[in-house]
Amino acid sequence: MSRTAVADAPVDRAAPPVSTLRQPRLPRWAPLGLAAVAAVLGIGIGLVGGLDSRLQWGLIAAVLYLGLTAVLAGTVEGTRQAKDRLATSLIWVCFLLAVVPLASLLWETLVRGAKVLDGYFLTHSMSGVITLEPGGGVYHALIGTLEQVGLATVISAPLGLLTAVYLVEYGTGRLAKAITFFVDVMTGIPSIVAGLFILSFWIIILDFGYSGFAGAMALAILMMPIVVRSTEEMLKLVPNELREASLALGVPKWKTIIKVVLPTAIGGITTGIMLAVARIAGESAPILLLVFGSAEINNNPFDGAQSSLPYFIYEQWALGNEASYDRAWAAALVLIAFVMILNLVARGIARWKAPKH
């Protein structure tokens, strides 16, 4: 093409320059760089100000990070993008503020509990052990926790599941409203109130003795509303089209619930039950009132005092010596491992029983 043809070619003067379409942006490493700068400044301010707590250093660094992010993003990218970056940074800061204490607690429990956690600790009780001396184990408390939580689950899981099925599939009128109201009330009941109720009814009025079963009934009261609420929400997530398709084929409603609705929601239902189990596994107030504690192994939850992991932790910590502190930390580590195993089992069952697509 000749130079004359190029010169005579029409020029789109209305099109803006390419450079104006590109908004200035901070580099990708800017958040990490600002975090590093804020951390250094926070430590420096803490040292100069004579602050000994690292938590205070972290809070100062978090505030500086948010301020630097807002100022730098507003200067380079504009007000609109600065607000977006500030909101994102605030979410990350809140996330770290929530995770750091949890990670610190887990690490502290792991380090201190690993001192005495071994096979001997898991297979022996405190019978005949001098509390001031090292030794003894958590076997009797572990057996008590397994039996009490198991009985509470056997009591509350079927009742909670059937209650949720009734509320979602059949519940109408005053009865459903009354059940919903009492479930809401039970959700906020303190654990000590559940223990006092079983104490007054089961032990004082009916004259039964202290036992693991009494503690299991109190734990079932705490567990039941959680099972009802979680199961109810999972059943509501099942598409109505599945119910309508089954009913259109002439399948009775009860069989539709058993064969279609419950298998579809089994993953969420199992997860809700495991969350309820994790909720009650660490309860100590009802156990103090009803199970009464024991240093010996009692495999019968229906007769005699029994121990549990939360009670054992409280008991050993109250003794106030170095050996008992080590046992308390080790028992806390066992309790955390117990809850984690329950959650892993729940995920496995949910994946196994989930409908295949």
Textual characterization of the structure:
The protein contains 14 helices and no strands. It is mainly α. The model has no long low-confidence stretch (mean pLDDT 84). Helix 6 packs across helix 13, helix 8 (191-205) crosses helix 9 and helix 13 packs antiparallel against helix 14 (322-353). It starts with a helix and ends with a helix. The chain has helices at residues 3-8, 30-48, 54-76, 79-113, 119-123, 139-170, 173-187, 191-205, 212-236, 240-248, 253-281, 285-290, 309-319, 322-353.
Summarize the SSE layout with pairings.
Blueprint: H1 3-8, H2 30-48, H3 54-76, H4 79-113, H5 119-123, H6 139-170, H7 173-187, H8 191-205, H9 212-236, H10 240-248, H11 253-281, H12 285-290, H13 309-319, H14 322-353
Helix pairs in contact: 2-3, 3-4, 4-14, 6-9, 6-11, 6-13, 7-9, 8-9, 9-11, 10-11, 11-14, 13-14
Rg, Cα atoms, Å: 30 Å
Mean pLDDT across all amino acids: 84
* Shape label: flat
- Please bin the fraction of helical residues: over 70%
**Main beta sheet:** none
Termini gap: 62 Å
SS class: mainly alpha
Number of H- or I-type helical stretches: 14
SSE topology string: HHHHHHHHHHHHHH
Topology, number of strands: 0
- How much strand? under 5%
Low-confidence stretches: none
